[in-house]
């Protein structure tokens, strides 16, 4: 999935001459934590809720403009980048969101919450489903497991892997809700070990 499929497109933006108080009021009004600073659709900077908190002391009475405190050259992502790339950037730089650019034009924002929603959707976690955890046997591999599951009328939503204590990979199949007993029996007969079934 690409960033453009799950980014926020209806943006609230501000200019560099906006006062910090105004930026804070906009964030509060629209329940957002990030504001791109733009001029003619070009991204000049980025300001976050945490940036504003540093300047919200009563002792600081003078007017402060956004351009004085905004993040210059913020980390950005291209709208055609994968959501995995966006997730890595957010994780590696420990930030809550990324401006999304098409060439140099600001076209959206993607946040950690947007990415979490996309991954939950991709994995089918909100659908009525079951999870089948399988240690694949020595013969046939994961292709054989997939074939058996499908042959018994079970629809695969997603597949994930994790390491197992046996040093073999554990395959976690997210399946459409349905009858699994026959598929489980067939997997065991074929030499695959069903470790757990989670509804």
Automatic annotation (TrEMBL):
Record carries keyword Transcription regulation: no
Keywords: CBS domain, Repeat
SMART domains on file: CBS
Keyword Ligase annotated: no
Family annotation (CDD domains): CBS_pair_AcuB_like
Every CBS domain range: 7-64, 70-129
Residues in coiled coil: none
Record-linked PANTHER family: CBS DOMAIN-CONTAINING PROTEIN CBSX2, CHLOROPLASTIC (PTHR48108), CBS DOMAIN-CONTAINING PROTEIN YHCV (PTHR48108:SF34)
Protein name: CBS and ACT domain-containing protein
Organism: Thiovibrio frasassiensis
């Amino acid at each position: 999935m690409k960033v453009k499929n799950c980014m926020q497109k209806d943006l609230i933006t501000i200019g560099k001459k906006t006062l910090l108080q105004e930026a804070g009021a906009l964030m509060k009004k629209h329940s957002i934590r990030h504001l791109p600073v733009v001029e003619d659709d070009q991204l000049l900077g980025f300001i976050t809720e945490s940036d504003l908190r540093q300047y919200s002391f009563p002792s600081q009475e003078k007017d402060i403009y956004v351009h004085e405190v905004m993040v210059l050259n913020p980390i950005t992502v291209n709208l055609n980048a994968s959501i995995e790339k966006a997730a890595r950037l957010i994780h590696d730089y420990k930030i809550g969101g990324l401006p999304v650019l098409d060439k140099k034009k600001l076209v959206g924002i993607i946040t950690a919450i947007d990415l979490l929603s996309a991954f939950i959707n991709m994995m089918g976690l909100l659908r009525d489903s079951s999870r089948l955890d399988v240690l694949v046997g020595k013969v046939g591999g994961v292709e054989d497991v997939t074939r058996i599951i499908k042959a018994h009328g079970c629809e695969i939503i997603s597949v994930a892997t994790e390491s197992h204590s046996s040093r073999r990979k554990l395959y976690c199949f997210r399946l459409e809700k349905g009858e699994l007993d026959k598929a489980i029996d067939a997997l065991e007969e074929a030499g695959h070990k069903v470790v757990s079934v989670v509804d």
